[in-house]
Design goal:
The protein contains 11 helices and 10 strands. The chain is globular and about 50 Å long. The mean pLDDT is 93. The strands form 2 sheets. It has a 6-stranded parallel beta sheet, with helices on both faces. It has a 4-stranded parallel beta sheet with strand order 6-5-7-8, with helices on both faces. It has 270 residues and is α/β, with parallel strands linked by helices.
Length: 270
């Protein structure tokens, strides 16, 4: 048993979509989440810049005595996972891409055409294609960068005509050209628009990296015998900018119960 908190981080608010799954599956666990909202989105940035930002946040979480670090961000998982594992070999660090690829390999029909939508950096890395094809060589995997999704989501532009037009702009031709049957949301921001995607394309089977991150946390903690026996303190949510969408997401996660979450601002030498 290990009653220390689990550290989560993301470039902005997207990683928060993993937190309700963790709270439900592992109610005894305490969470410290860091959202780098002041510097989001990470998708258009260089891999070196993302690595620098991620190291700052991992150091912050390490100083808060977390027992595990969860990279609740596909862009960071694609570019920094192995680097952070080398820097902090004494802390289990997990990303979201490998767990999601394993689910794709189990759920998809033989020869299925799988679409992956993600940030430009994640698509450029080819991480999803490599992981999925290593497990299921028979699957056809196609990726599309959707760079406008994250800034729109960060601004709270989700359930409206602007977002619907943006979805159609990115996905109409992509889904048609490759006859996509299964769509991987390769960014933890994207579950926030999954309902909109399904309204436009109801035939799709969606696989969310946010849900699979929570499943991976449970498996890893059980394997290492690091599950918590009790949660005696509040969850902590920290941001480099306490933006309105960040605060709204915390309120949604905590269902308005202020006693389960503390919210803080932290300046990472911005």
């Amino acid at each position: 048993m290990d009653n220390r908190p689990i550290g989560f981080f993301d470039s902005g608010i997207g990683g928060l979509t993993s937190i309700p799954y963790v709270m439900k599956k592992l109610p005894e666990e305490r969470i410290i989440f860091f959202g780098d909202t002041a510097r989001a989105p990470y998708g258009p940035k260089s891999a070196d810049t993302i690595q620098h930002f991620s190291l700052q946040i991992a150091h912050f979480l390490k100083n808060h005595n977390v027992k595990m670090i969860v990279i609740a961000c596909n862009t960071v998982s694609a570019t920094c996972l192995e680097y952070l594992r080398r820097v902090y070999p004494d802390i289990p660090i997990i990303g979201v891409i490998s767990p999601t690829a394993r689910v794709v390999s189990k759920r998809c029909a033989p020869g299925a055409s799988v679409g992956v939508i993600a940030t430009s950096v994640t698509v450029k890395s080819g991480a999803y294609e490599k992981k999925i094809k290593a497990l299921r060589p028979d699957l056809q995997v196609h990726s599309a960068a959707c760079p406008a999704f994250v800034p729109l989501i960060e601004e709270g532009i989700i359930d409206n005509e602007i977002m619907r037009l943006t979805i159609k702009y990115y996905l109409d031709e992509f889904l048609r050209r490759y006859d996509i049957t299964d769509l991987v949301l390769g960014c933890t921001h994207y579950p926030l628009i999954s309902d909109e995607i399904l309204r436009i394309y109801p035939h799709l089977r969606i696989i969310s990296s946010s849900m699979e991150a929570a499943n991976a946390v449970e498996l890893e903690l059980k394997k290492r015998d690091m599950l918590s026996s009790a949660r005696s303190e509040n969850h902590i949510f920290v941001a480099s900018d306490l933006s309105a969408p960040f605060l709204q997401m915390i309120h949604r996660i905590s269902e308005g119960k202020k006693e389960i979450a503390d919210i803080h601002f932290y300046n990472l030498d911005l």
